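Hi C.,

You asked whether I'd gotten around to modeling the 331-residue construct. I have! Everything is below, sequence then structure, no commentary in between.
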Amino acid sequence: MKGNFTRRGFVAGSAAASLMLSPSVRRAAAADAVTVRWASLQPGFTVLPVQFILANKLGLKNGVSVPDPMPYTAVSTYYNDFVAGNYDVCIGSWDTFAARYQAGVPIKYLCTITDANMIAILAPKSGVSDVSQLKGKTIAALQSTGTYRMVKALIKEANGFDIEKDATIQNVDNPAASVTLVMADRADAALSWEPNITTGIVKKPDLRVIFKAGDAYHKIAKGAGDLPYFGVGIRQELIDKHPGIAAKVGNMFKECLQGINADTAKAVDLFGSRTGVPNDILKEAMGSKRLTFNYKPMSDATARQTVIKASEFLARNGLLTKPVDDKFFAA
């Protein structure tokens, strides 16, 4: 069975319920489906779920018509166009959605798909072994991101020092560049996120992870659950115009992540090339459990509480104006 694996067989197996429908039924379903505009940030690991949804027709199966997403290469433009209402559904960092929501943008948070364990600090094995030893050292990081500010707050609360005051931050233009600097021995440590972390470890086995954001959060927020990272935002206008659409879009992502998790190797082999990340790197990142897909809908009270607790941490550190409330969630 394994030797006879084909792309067609995998796609058919992953979306059996929709593909078993007769052509006439599928055409009727397509006619009734709500068109939802979305986007794709390239390159990046989020291309994997996007392509999985498209190939397996998970939108149509859930009453949603999702055309090819608008492609973006600049993070700022990607988010700004969502804020402007140029598309309806966005995969991004949850705190970005929260900050825009608090600024008055009509968006809701639909679900979390990854947690903050994909954010890490790398250092050579011959160097520091713990983040607390970075005092007086040089850390390469992309300072313009909310991820950097979140990690700064985590280290301050969990380890008791300010990386900007007690260490030297070497700013970079993108998250891959920080890893490149530590690989070239031009920095003592690098802050980045997956799959850049795995890229560094594979290319230079002398590197190791000395800090994971998720672990640091557990240390300071016992019982608060995982620190969310990437999730799905949805425009309020779409929700108002099509009651029930949030649940349909949410179920589309749920089935997508279930399908990827059922056989990550096959999913990466089929769609990983479009992420701009080598397949072996993507497989290793997911195998390490740093990059994991885990669907947590905001229709679930426990999932909502996890985000609220995380927002309390961000507000305490000045990264949000205040904790989010239930109106932030699409439930």
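If it helps when you're writing up: The CA atoms of residues 124 and 306 lie 33 Å apart.

Thanks,
B.
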